[in-house]
């Protein structure tokens, strides 16, 4: 109220002069008269008498006397912020406080009166009766009391309305119009917009955001009234306060002082020391300013002192990375200062991310007690059972697995889930390492790797999948899509390796003779997968990657996983029989669904206790399956396979029977264990396998036991080969005094 210089009305609203003996004559918006009558508690049945009605445009240009000060002020045309939702339809206007009031005053040439100091207290301009009082404290009460004393207060009431509060102190803010320094953007706005097009924005929507902010940017207010910050090195005339001393001589001198003493010397030295020699005799005339630079100007010019100012760095910078709110902040201020000074953007790429919320999606706050401490995730809390130490890699894996383009959540349960993914990756690596103890890589003396052309189809397919995954991971990393890269690695480790390839490979890794080509070809693939796996996870999980590398059971090409770079040599494997192995995996999924029912009904236990009967009318699918028939199957004329690319191995079932009709399935299997596969489209039946269980590989075979041995023909051959190679007899212990021989 002490700062009031005008009253604003809406020219498009209708206003009325109303009268009642309790209130006297009032000017109000016509649509608000009835509501105001109820607020004044007029006697029952009585209301205002309307003396005259007129449009708001007729009220504009009139004047009124201020209720507390001897000044006459105008009634002005305000904006559409004046409505008939509440109040009187006439709005108090103080150009020195509030943006809408400021703009209205600017439009109509009103003075700027802001009788409030930096401490939020009324100044002498508010009058002796209010001077020194807190605006938000006793000053409010004093103003209301003063209005009552002059007979100008008709009604005082509390009401709820929107008002900005300071987010840190949770107290209402005070707006003041003060003298500021501005930088004009108009002279280089087009150049800034052109520079936006030269930058790669991740995600793409960032480009639209920055363009919108630069396009709508007005003059940049670069001064602040704070007790800290980089000072604006300007001097003001002590008498007038308006004359300014700021030229190349003063700037060069201040620059020299800042370089020698730091910017704080502006506050510790007096004017005589701060002025250059040519102005020292005028030191009594000038007063140093107390304004500081906008911190966005400080950070926005960091490219000059960092990227451009250091020989080991590059300008423009490769990438700027910050939160999505920085399109109006650091990204924009950096762009504007760089374009103004250098004519180009200070960065080649800008990546923005969302913010971290708690597990329930709420903003983290110390007052709410929901802040997740990264160090506690890494090192654990005091109670290690309740808050275990997950290590830095788990936290990094969480960061890499979320979609950072929006806000992300974190909490104990989410970290637990991330830890399970971490364990899956680590256990996969352990399994790979554990099966390469006697492997010698290519290029080393005594290498026992198998050339690509001699590998079975399944192994070639696996290497093709490895190359495809590494290419996807590399591409995702280049595009900063870390969650896509992470998900691809997790899917590869789980679906391609653990759930299929490694599960199937156990048979030849554990059952085959040591130098069996089937085992060596599998090790060749495991070696490629392990090195590709370690190098591809290194950017996200550096500790796990290095741990893997230091525990490789063969001579390493480099001392550290980080010295070899991305495994480019593993990107060259072509796709091999993708259609066939995709179909086999679909078939395997369908077989496993029926097996689950058979297990629940106690028909079978392990999958090797079962036999599968499969029918399809699709000639292509039938052809692929017939090419994979094992020579251990007896139903059809056997086709000799390499012992790897056969159905019973891929399906982990003792016998696979390709039948000519659905009736052949119903005659061999119970109805409960017959189904048409959702994935493969084949009709499948499951029954108990024929024959006896091999004591070594656990496959069921009708030949087991016929020669007095509990071994299948394959295992019998493997043992004979081992006996021949070692000179030992399987199942016969060596003499106690036998000399120990090294075991490879």
TrEMBL record:
<feature type="domain" description="Aminoacyl-tRNA synthetase class Ia">
    <location>
        <begin position="170"/>
        <end position="408"/>
    </location>
</feature>
<dbReference type="GO" id="GO:0005524">
    <property type="term" value="F:ATP binding"/>
</dbReference>
<feature type="domain" description="Methionyl/Valyl/Leucyl/Isoleucyl-tRNA synthetase anticodon-binding">
    <location>
        <begin position="459"/>
        <end position="610"/>
    </location>
</feature>
<dbReference type="Pfam" id="PF00133">
    <property type="entry name" value="tRNA-synt_1"/>
</dbReference>
<dbReference type="Pfam" id="PF08264">
    <property type="entry name" value="Anticodon_1"/>
</dbReference>
<keyword id="KW-0547">Nucleotide-binding</keyword>
<keyword id="KW-0030">Aminoacyl-tRNA synthetase</keyword>
<dbReference type="GO" id="GO:0004822">
    <property type="term" value="F:isoleucine-tRNA ligase activity"/>
</dbReference>
<dbReference type="GO" id="GO:0002161">
    <property type="term" value="F:aminoacyl-tRNA deacylase activity"/>
</dbReference>
<dbReference type="InterPro" id="IPR002301">
    <property type="entry name" value="Ile-tRNA-ligase"/>
</dbReference>
<protein>
    <recommendedName>
        <fullName>isoleucine--tRNA ligase</fullName>
        <ecNumber>6.1.1.5</ecNumber>
    </recommendedName>
</protein>
<keyword id="KW-0648">Protein biosynthesis</keyword>
<dbReference type="InterPro" id="IPR050081">
    <property type="entry name" value="Ile-tRNA_ligase"/>
</dbReference>
<dbReference type="GO" id="GO:0032543">
    <property type="term" value="P:mitochondrial translation"/>
</dbReference>
<dbReference type="InterPro" id="IPR014729">
    <property type="entry name" value="Rossmann-like_a/b/a_fold"/>
</dbReference>
<dbReference type="InterPro" id="IPR009008">
    <property type="entry name" value="Val/Leu/Ile-tRNA-synth_edit"/>
</dbReference>
<dbReference type="InterPro" id="IPR033708">
    <property type="entry name" value="Anticodon_Ile_BEm"/>
</dbReference>
<dbReference type="GO" id="GO:0000049">
    <property type="term" value="F:tRNA binding"/>
</dbReference>
<keyword id="KW-0067">ATP-binding</keyword>
<dbReference type="InterPro" id="IPR002300">
    <property type="entry name" value="aa-tRNA-synth_Ia"/>
</dbReference>
<dbReference type="GO" id="GO:0006428">
    <property type="term" value="P:isoleucyl-tRNA aminoacylation"/>
</dbReference>
<dbReference type="GO" id="GO:0005739">
    <property type="term" value="C:mitochondrion"/>
</dbReference>
<keyword id="KW-0436">Ligase</keyword>
<dbReference type="InterPro" id="IPR013155">
    <property type="entry name" value="M/V/L/I-tRNA-synth_anticd-bd"/>
</dbReference>
<dbReference type="InterPro" id="IPR009080">
    <property type="entry name" value="tRNAsynth_Ia_anticodon-bd"/>
</dbReference>
